[in-house]
Design goal:
alpha/beta, Spore Coat Polysaccharide Biosynthesis Protein SpsA, Chain A, 8 helices, 289 residues, globular
């Protein structure tokens, strides 16, 4: 047996033993993690944070119309899901996000900020946010995406609480699965997860995720099983499945997941004629900045 196989086998045994002794009667607090430290080079925005791209407009009062920014909808959706604390991971170049979001009061939650000192990929950014919340249940959403239905995070959280999963993935249809992270599942049962497979075996991708403290605790061990210098968090999801953690799916078959961090995704969000943001349904209350 290879060293890697032995590591997988030992990890599976450890996870199995923990699962048998877990007390589901206690309900840890939920914390939202929003990794917003990426450089956004694919869009060529010249330093403008992609998280602050307006994705629709809202009328406040009789006359005033204000843009609603991508990251605002992400934070508001977490608050709507019942998450009282949201951790936003930024870089030193993303202080405009702090100015816009402030303490989160206008979005219905408390926001704390963590600075990722060096860009080392999505997994590292998430771990920066997890440092102070290792014992919490985590709700993950990306701040440069459009997710529909708007209550998808609430649905995901409720599903994980109901079936006591270690990791639950919100799965959306996509026409570009080879550039994303498809999930093979049968109902809520997950059979396989891939990171940018070519060709892709299914036409979907995970877009949001929720997990418990057990998954967080095993992240360092999962990283030991991966050779990539800057692994995606999808690689951790794959390792959780291999370690026989309880990994479930919530399919949003009529949902929508758009990555604004790519030119193609941004084009899908804006009207090709007027150049204005398309009308995206959003009922969250966001008070004036």
């Amino acid at each position: 047996m290879s060293a890697t196989s032995k590591t997988h086998a030992a990890l599976s045994r450890a996870v199995w033993n923990e699962t048998r002794s877990t007390d589901h009667d206690t309900a840890p607090e939920w914390v939202g993690i929003i990794p917003a430290a990426g450089e956004g080079r694919r869009l060529g925005l010249g330093g403008y944070p992609k998280e602050l791209i307006p994705i629709h407009y809202r009328r406040n009062g009789a006359a005033r119309v204000r843009p609603v920014l991508a990251i605002e909808t992400t934070v508001a959706a977490m608050a709507d899901a019942g998450v009282s604390t949201v951790c936003v991971v930024i870089s030193e170049a993303k202080l405009d996000i702090v100015r816009v979001l402030s303490d989160g009061a206008s979005l219905g939650c408390k926001i704390v900020y963590v600075v990722q000192s060096e860009a080392r990929g999505l997994w590292d950014a998430i771990e920066c946010g997890l440092a102070s919340f290792a014992e919490k249940n985590i709700l993950l959403a990306l701040p440069d995406t459009v997710v529909e239905p708007e209550n998808a995070l609430k649905t995901l959280k409720a599903s994980m609480e109901t079936i006591h999963a270690d990791l639950t993935l919100g799965v959306f249809p996509t026409s570009h699965p080879e550039a994303q992270a498809p999930v093979q599942h049968e109902g809520e049962k997950v059979h396989a997860i891939w990171e940018k497979p070519d060709p892709a075996p299914v036409s979907n991708t995970w877009g949001i995720a929720a997990w418990n403290a057990r998954f967080t605790a095993h992240l360092p061990q999962f990283r030991q099983c991966i050779s990539e210098p800057q692994p995606s968090i999808t690689h951790a999801f794959i390792q959780a499945l291999r370690a026989e953690m309880k990994v479930s799916a919530v399919p949003f078959q009529d949902g929508r997941y758009v990555d604004l961090g790519t030119p193609e995704g941004l084009a899908e969000t804006f009207d090709p004629v007027s150049g204005s943001p398309r009308c995206i349904k959003a009922s969250f209350e966001i008070t004036s900045r």
